[in-house]
Amino acid sequence: MRIAEPLAASWKAELELRFERAGERSVLAARRHDGPLVVQKPLYPEGDAVCHAIVVHPPAGIAGGDELELAARVGRGAHALLTTPGAGKWYRSSGAWAAQRLAFDVAPGACLEWLPQETIVFDGAAARLSAEVRLAGDARYIGWEILCLGRTGAGERFGKGEIRLDTRLYRDGKLLWLERGRIEGGGALLDSPAGLQGQTVCATLLAAGAPFDLATCRAIEGLAVTQLPGALVARYLGNSSEQAKRLLARMWAVLRPALAGREAAEPRIWRT
Question: Are 82 and 74 in contact (CB under 8 A)?
Fold first, then answer.
């Protein structure tokens, strides 16, 4: 399926967040939004040191031509955890691309956790997803993306459309991780032994900023773990978004004490 460039009017949404350290407290010091992308009030389920924020896209789904941009800056010594209230849905397109761009900047001594719920790409969707994470000094980061191809619960496969992926992780301007991908609906990659092997859910976790116990990480069955210079990558490939999230959460629980000096505390929104 050949996807055209956007031709029609659509929703554009931008959200910019800035977190700072104020004494012993991490605070949401500034926020700006334009269009249907907002953040709920800061939450402190772990105490003052970590600011939890829930990023909400009120339309709940992304249609062809829509563009979402989320930028977050975490100042020196601050700690922010961002998540979403539910699955993101990318609808079938009549021709126009939809796009989501993430831009994260993390200062020395700061920590950012990006733990969204799954992304469901409908059959016929045309989706561009990009993420750029820039770390400075000893900044720490952990984030994941869970990608579901088609609404498998309704018997739907990703038979048409296209997904383009671009993820980059930098430290002090040096590229640590670059991944670019293209998944065509109904394409050979979906069933290839060197591709998705007929599976419908793929997920990636990236972590950087601390030495990790590689043996403990690799003991989590169901994930493939790779240690790179300056970063750790964990992969899931299967047919269950629930299993993917459960396994990534287990990995997060292993990595977080080294990364942030504290045990994992699941956002309450995950249980609602």
Answer: no
Cβ contact 104:135 at 8 Å = no
CB 197 within 8 A of CB 212: no
Q: How far is CA 31 from the centre of its chain?
A: 20
3-class state of residue 271 by DSSP = helix
In angstroms and rounded to an integer, the radius of gyration of the C-alpha atoms of the chain is 18
User: What is the DSSP-derived secondary structure letter of residue 97?
Assistant: -
Whether 250 and 257 have beta carbons less than 8 Å apart is answered as no
Q: How many CA atoms lie within 13 A of 272 on its CB side?
A: 7
Tens digits of residue pLDDT in 4-56: 444 445 789 999 999 999 999 999 999 999 998 999 889 999 999 999 999 99
Q: Which residue has the tokens 């493939």?
A: 224
* C-alpha–C-alpha distance, residues 245 and 259, integer Å: 19
- The gap from C-alpha 127 to its chain's centroid, in whole angstroms, comes to 15
Where does residue 97 rank: exposed (0-12), middle (13-18), buried (19+ CB within 10 A)?
buried
Q: pLDDT tens digits for 126-146?
A: 999 999 999 999 999 999 999
Write down the residue that tokens 């939004």 correspond to. 33
Give the amino acid at 153. Answer: G
List the structure tokens of 76: 């020196």
Give me the DSSP letters along 109-164: T-EEEEE---EEE-TT-EEEEEEEEEE-TT-EEEEEEEEEES-GGGT----S-EEE
Distance CA 2, CA 196 (A): 21
Q: How many Å apart are CA 178 and CA 168, to the nearest integer? A: 5
Domain boundaries, the chain: 61-271
